[in-house]
Amino acid sequence: MATHEPLKISYQNKLIEAGCDEAGRGCLAGPVCAAAVILPRDFSHPLLNDSKQLSMKQRDMLRGLIESEALSWAVAMVDNREIDQINILNASIKAMHLAVEKLNPQPGMLLIDGNRFKPYRELPHQCIVKGDSLFLSIAAASVLAKTHRDEYMKAAHLQYPHYKWNENKGYPTKSHREGLAKHGITPLHRLSFRLSDTQLSLGI
C-alpha cells in the first residue's frame, strides 16, 4: 500500500481551526454535501487522507472514529433544486457555511479544500488546493462529506433503483446514463447539468 506524507494538524496555532470539504459537486443527481470538523490538537491516524484515496470500508471506519473523537463536527446538504437555482459552486459554499454554523464550539479560522470560497461571517479562512491530502481536519471533513452523501444516495436508490445510485452515487457513469435514457429524470436530478449525451442534438 502506498504511503503518504503525514498530514498536518493545523495551519496556525493561535485560533481553533475547522477543516471544510464537500462531496458530490460533479454528480447529476442528489445534493451536494459539506462537512466541517474541528479535531483535537493531538489527533492522528495513519489512514486518514483524502477520502478519494480510501476504500469504502476505510472511510466508514474513519467516519466513526472522527465522529467520536472530533471536538466538533457537522454535515449539511444543499439539494438539487437549490443547486439549479444558485449553481453548484454557490451551493457547495452554502453547504460549507451551513455546516460551520452548526459547530460548537465555533472555530476561529476555516481551512477550505479547493480555491474558491466566500467569507463566512468575520472568520478568517484559507483556501488550500488538495487540502484534503495536506491537513488532517480537511481530510476528516472529506471523509464525513463523502460517507454522509453516499448514505443519502444509497437510500435514494431504494426509491429510484433504475439509476444504480447504490454504486455510482449519482455520478455520470454509464449505468446512470443508461437509466436516464430509459427512464428519464427523477425529482432528484439536477436540471442545470447536462443529463444526457444527446441533449444538444434534441433541439431543446
Can you put this structure into words, describing what you see?
- With 204 residues, the protein is α/β, with parallel strands linked by helices.
- The chain has a single domain, classed as Ribonuclease H-like superfamily/Ribonuclease H (Nucleotidyltransferase, domain 5), CATH 3.30.420.10.
- The chain contains six helices and five strands.
- The chain has a five-stranded mixed sheet with strand order 3-2-1-4-5, sandwiched between helices.
- The chain is globular, with a radius of gyration of 18 Å.
- The N and C termini lie far apart (49 Å).
> Helices and strands: which structural class?
alpha/beta
Rg from C-alpha positions?
18 Å
Structure annotation, total helices: 6
Give the overall average pLDDT.
93
Q: What helical percentage do the residues reach? A: 25-40%
Strand order of the largest sheet: 3-2-1-4-5
Largest sheet: 5 strands, mixed
- The name of the CATH topology is Nucleotidyltransferase, domain 5
**Count of individual beta strands:** 5
- Classified by CATH, the class is Alpha Beta
Strand residue content: 5-15%
The residue ranges in which pLDDT falls below 50 over 5 or more consecutive positions are 199-204
The best one-word shape is: globular
CATH-defined architecture: 2-Layer Sandwich
First-to-last CA distance: 49 Å
Domain module tally: 1
- H and E order: EEHEHHEEHHH
CATH superfamily: Ribonuclease H-like superfamily/Ribonuclease H
